[in-house]
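Ticket 4471: requesting a sanity check on a complex prediction with sodium ion. Repro inputs:
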Amino acid sequence: MSAKNIWTHKGTFLLAAVGSAVGLGNLWRFPYLTGENGGGAFILIYALTIAMVGIPILIAETLLGRASRRSPIMGMKYLTESHGTSAAWQTIGWMGAAAAFIILSFYSVIAGWAIHYTWLLFSGELAGADSETIGAAFGTLLGSPELLLTYHTLFILASGLIVGMGIHKGIEGSLRFMMPALFLILLIVLGYAVIVGDAGAAMRFLFTFNLEDLSLEGWLQAMGQSFFTLSLGMGAIMAYGAYMSSEASLTRTAISIALVDTLIALMAGVAIFALVFGAGMEAGQGPGLMFVTLPIAFADLPGGSILGGIFFILVIGAALTSAISLVEPVAAWLVERFGMSRPLAVTVMVLGCWALGLLTVFSFNVWEKDSWSHALFGRSPFDVLEFLTNIMMPVGGLLIALFAGWALTREEVLREMNTNDRWFAVWQFLVRFIAPMAVAFVFLRTIPQIEG
Ligand code: PHE
Ligand code: NA
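Returned structure tokens:
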């Protein structure tokens, strides 16, 4: 494979993977899950699942990408054929690409909400508004298919433009400028939150824990979150791994990705809870934490319109660097398999995701209740799609762990893992036994929810 399909520098994969990892999962999902699950207790089990399950599978998925140097679908075909193992393993590639397609379709709609809030805050429209007004503003947004559709279209178009420009000019070029800028914005928001908010209360909430807060539900959510936040099981990491320099260390890179991702989630958590507690509100608000509770805090605080607007720019940017990693696996496959030009492949992928995204757009208004989807599945189309990906992620991760842990030979793995053998043994143990058992457990617990 030509050097054209390798990242420019040894460290570019790290940059790209961090761009993929840091997103709505860190800024929106992690804080509200922590809030719902009692704070410090959740963070403790989350850190454990990242270390024992997330990092080993992250190494495995990167390894599969780099060993094949192809898009996930073609890569798994190549690995199984050259290895002479069952074609059933190719499910990893197909399911990853399908999951990336589905996730992007709703990720884009939710990221679009942040565009609306950037505008709402900068315009000063929310300054001094009371909590009913702000709660109603969220309802108005969700109730409007036109608004949701506009933002969804804008967001997915932006991701397509970046990926369409290629992995060097488009993906690398945008990440090299966006990642430092986003980190700077996070520092500014954190500094502001510490000054005007209640950082002490936020730290106590996040870093002290009661054993009685540990629940089975919390474990399951922590495991799901560690997959989502590290972008695992969706072909994104495999697709980026295909372009990774052969010299970079798999273990060291994966640990760095997980550390940066966790650090950013914690910084976002401190900032958000300092603001929320400073405004005298509660942590356990669920998904509305970012879109209702936080805007209420910003409305109340000095300089809140400007800083709130800046915060939502951070949300849009972080979501964008994740979205491009969801476009890549399918687009790269279309290029490889059908010889499409990259711009055409990206257009096909983005148009398809845009259309599928309509299901999510209408789930919050015209199909909110009593639709065909409720009749068929007992839930909205968005809930069905989210549920599907919640199954595909652990199954994909399980298969990746089993394939890398059991199907590949020691020689094949050591060709990629040129670090020392002690880490190899630790990784192999985790990826063979601990990760599959943990994921299978989560999976078996998710299945009964099909009824609900
Ligand atoms: N890791 C991203 C986040 O935390 C979400 C994501 C999942 C991105 C899978 C790409 C692939 O928001
Ligand atoms: Na993340």
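Notes from triage: The first helix runs from residue 12 to 21. Leaving this open until the requester confirms.
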